[in-house]
UniProtKB/TrEMBL annotation, chains A, B:
Name of the molecule in the record: Activator of Hsp90 ATPase homologue 1/2-like C-terminal domain-containing protein
Domain Activator of Hsp90 ATPase homologue 1/2-like C-terminal: 13-131
Family statement: Belongs to the AHA1 family.
Species classification: Bacteria, Pseudomonadati, Bacteroidota, Cytophagia, Cytophagales
Alphabetized Pfam families for the sequence: AHSA1
Record SUPFAM superfamilies: Bet v1-like
InterPro entries: ASHA1/2-like_C (IPR013538), START-like_dom_sf (IPR023393)
Gene3D superfamilies the UniProt entry points to: 3.30.530.20
Residues passing through the membrane, by range: none
């Protein structure tokens, strides 16, 4: 098993604002992909994220407002099936610190390397969304390689 | 043990140009930190990278020009001691694909989350250096959180 880990600090006093960006359709569409359906504010909900041809369905499995969000991948590329994603928030100095985990990859395949870098880029998009009002969600996301 | 993994694709036909950016002082200073001393083109060499107060010393342990570079951390923060870093290059489509690994962290501590995101940002700086002639090395690097 292998995990992708990231840490970003968002310059805002409002942890609630970051939590909203992780649990509402409009929030998620503002930093990950504009093609987002479903709300993430109730456990059991499914959120559908689409990127060009493919995408991911996430089941919301845990919420502790405003500090913790956890999803399980219910549909998507085979390497993602059985993996979970969590976002942990807390205040520190003038920042909301976000600890991100994409857990339980079966193998550290090349696609995992790609997803690790791509998550960093999307978390920087979330940071920018909160700090400046403008993120870079798909299809206007920062491209990192030939897989996009 | 835990590993940081990343994948970037650099739009250039010259794998040699990417290899130079990983093995020469000027190349490394162009994307990671301007305060770099030493050359990385011989195994056994030490390269010293400095960032503000702290930094890392790397021993070059393996070179296979132009496709592979491996370093061992010989001095730096305690969490980095005993870890290794590798860069693997190959041509694919119109890209040089770079697979990056920072291996053998004892524990997936919070500092590892930070370093994972920060490596992504620096690898995007390397991509930019090759593609546009301009990277964003420290001290003009992209800040990600309250640890910088």
């Amino acid at each position: 098993m292998a995990d992708i880990l990231h840490r970003v600090g968002i310059q805002t006093a409002s942890i609630e604002k970051v939590y909203q960006a992780l649990t509402t359709r409009d929030g998620l569409a503002g930093w990950w992909t504009t093609n987002t359906s479903g709300e993430g504010d109730q456990t059991g909900n499914i959120i559908a994220f689409r990127f060009g041809a493919g995408g991911f369905d996430m089941r919301v499995t845990e919420l502790r407002e405003p500090a913790y969000v956890r999803w399980e991948v219910s549909d998507g590329p085979e390497e993602w099936i059985g993996t979970s994603i969590s976002f942990e928030l807390r205040q520190e100095d003038d920042f909301i610190i976000l600890l991100f985990k994409h857990m339980n990859w079966q193998e550290p395949v090349e696609f995992m390397h790609h997803c690790s870098t791509k998550w960093a880029v999307f978390l920087m998009s979330l940071k920018s969304l909160i700090e400046t009002g403008k993120g870079s969600p798909d299809p206007d996301d920062v491209k990192i390689d030939n897989w996009n």
